[in-house]
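FAQ: What does the model actually see?

It sees only this:
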Amino acid sequence: IRGWDEGRIGSGKSFALISAEDRFPLFAILNGVLFADYGSDLGSGKDVLGNPGAVRGKPGSGGGYGAGLRIQSPLGSIRVDYGVRLDGGGTQFSFGLGEKF
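And it is asked to produce this:
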């Protein structure tokens, strides 16, 4: 979930993730994106031995929204996103290669 540290939302045997993006051209090799993400461990955190999500204070669900850039390169799309947590808990940059979907 963009805006959150990786693995910070939950620990479970099952999960659901929904992402929506609106991509739009800016310049020849540069596109912009607006996004929203939400994920949940579907309450399955308690089914993991030792309940590590609760021990580490993970909420079990959370979302984020933000904006980003896509640079089209010979290696594929280079992603730079700035995400904001829905719970007001902070912001985060994320980087990657290729599209998420």
